[in-house]
């Protein structure tokens, strides 16, 4: 007898800052949750140590109740590195013990570094956790290769992060260019490199309106960024905001000509995909999964990490040439719509669910009301969309 599916998602809270929460919210809005009977449990949220501990304890209790009382057909676990791995590994091993199929979604672009720096016993736990999952989802081909080196026997596939349909940016002709940085304001994201490059491009004195503007928004070292901009004489053209709500981020991107993200390491940054989906040119570093999203010279410009002169050269090129910015933005928009839209990613996730359940229960897979979804071959060497 067929029935509607029951699925459990486990991740950080959907109100948490960062890419995982954005990914979860985006996929939830596609109808995937409704079709697959998804219940969501948060095992982490922003806040102090006590709040985080309470969230994990309460979330784990809810997960165990779901496993025993509701018996989901599968659990989709969204994992990063470090503490996130520890929390989600507990969930995974509870599922393994109770024979609940696990889709393990690894979001961290630094997961391989977390593994390599861990002591040998923890490395064995990491490897076993990946290997026991029914399928491990990596964000792109490079991350998949890195996970394969950690756990050669794991069943691996790759999916892009999803982006919702968004109105393309349409700034007034002749408006002064606006460069936007969204993310944690600290050295690892290249925030201070960006301020230094900005000073090289706009000169040693502050640019008055209506000259080019640089906006940095996110948590982190705001005072250091402001002090550096003032020290370099560009404080008048640099604005530093705290973390913004989703609607505020959308408004900022709608006013942007360039999205700058000169990080030293990334997975598949949601902010890059969000900018692309709005037709904003991207200036980023050739690290992690970024080159799989942005072809340098086509959808944006990529430079080496922590190379301030190269960053300044690319920034100067974009500030000086509105036609160049427009062409890169249009190409970024076309690629986002063809490869990364949330509905297409949700469809591929459904294909994974069907395959996992078919392998576990060949003759008794639950059904849902959606149209038939083509399966995804998780053992294929390259499942990148568009490859």
Automatic annotation (TrEMBL):
CDD domains linked to this entry: GT4_PimA-like
Transmembrane segments: none
Glycosyltransferase subfamily 4-like N-terminal domain location: 50-164
Region called Disordered, residue ranges: 363-387
UniProt xrefs under Pfam families: Glyco_trans_1_4 (PF13692), Glyco_transf_4 (PF13439)
Record keywords: Glycosyltransferase, Transferase
Gene3D superfamilies: Glycogen Phosphorylase B
Protein name, UniProt field: Glycosyltransferase family 4 protein
Species annotation: Actinomycetospora lemnae
Lineage of origin: Bacteria, Bacillati, Actinomycetota, Actinomycetes, Pseudonocardiales
């Amino acid at each position: 007898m067929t029935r509607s599916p029951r699925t459990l998602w486990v991740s950080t809270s959907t109100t948490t800052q960062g890419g995982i929460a954005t990914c979860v919210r985006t996929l939830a809005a596609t109808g995937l949750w409704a079709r697959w009977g998804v219940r969501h449990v948060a095992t982490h949220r922003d806040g102090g140590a006590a709040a985080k501990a309470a969230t994990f304890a309460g979330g784990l209790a809810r997960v165990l109740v779901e496993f025993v009382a509701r018996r989901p057909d599968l659990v989709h676990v969204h994992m990063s590195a470090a503490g996130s791995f520890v929390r989600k590994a507990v969930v995974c091993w509870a599922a393994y013990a109770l024979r609940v199929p696990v889709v393990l979604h690894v979001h961290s672009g630094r997961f391989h570094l977390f593994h390599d720096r861990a002591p040998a016993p923890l490395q064995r736990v990491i490897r076993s956790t990946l290997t026991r999952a029914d399928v491990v989802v990596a964000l792109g081909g490079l991350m998949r290769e890195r996970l394969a080196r950690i756990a050669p026997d794991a069943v691996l596939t790759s999916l892009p992060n999803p982006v919702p349909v968004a109105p393309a940016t349409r700034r007034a002709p002749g408006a002064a260019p606006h460069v936007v940085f969204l993310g944690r304001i600290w050295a690892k994201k290249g925030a201070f490199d960006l301020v230094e490059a900005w000073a090289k491009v706009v000169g040693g004195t502050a640019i008055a309106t209506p000259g080019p503007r640089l906006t940095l928004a996110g948590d982190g070292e705001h005072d250091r960024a402001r002090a550096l901009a003032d020290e370099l004489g560009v404080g008048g053209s640099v604005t530093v905001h705290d973390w913004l709500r989703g609607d505020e981020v959308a408004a900022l991107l709608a006013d942007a000509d360039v999205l700058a993200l000169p990080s030293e390491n990334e997975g598949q940054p949601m902010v890059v995909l969000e900018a692309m989906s709005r037709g904003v040119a991207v200036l980023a570093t050739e690290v992690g999964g970024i080159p799989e999203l942005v072809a340098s010279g086509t959808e944006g410009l990529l430079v080496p990490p922590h190379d301030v002169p190269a960053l300044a050269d690319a920034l100067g090129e974009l500030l000086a040439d509105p036609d160049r910015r427009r062409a890169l933005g249009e190409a970024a928009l076309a690629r986002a719509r063809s490869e990364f839209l949330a509905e297409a990613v949700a469809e591929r996730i459904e294909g994974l669910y069907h395959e996992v359940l078919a392998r576990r229960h060949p003759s008794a897979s639950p059904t849902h009301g959606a149209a038939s979804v083509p399966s995804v071959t998780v053992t294929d060497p390259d499942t990148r969309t568009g490859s």
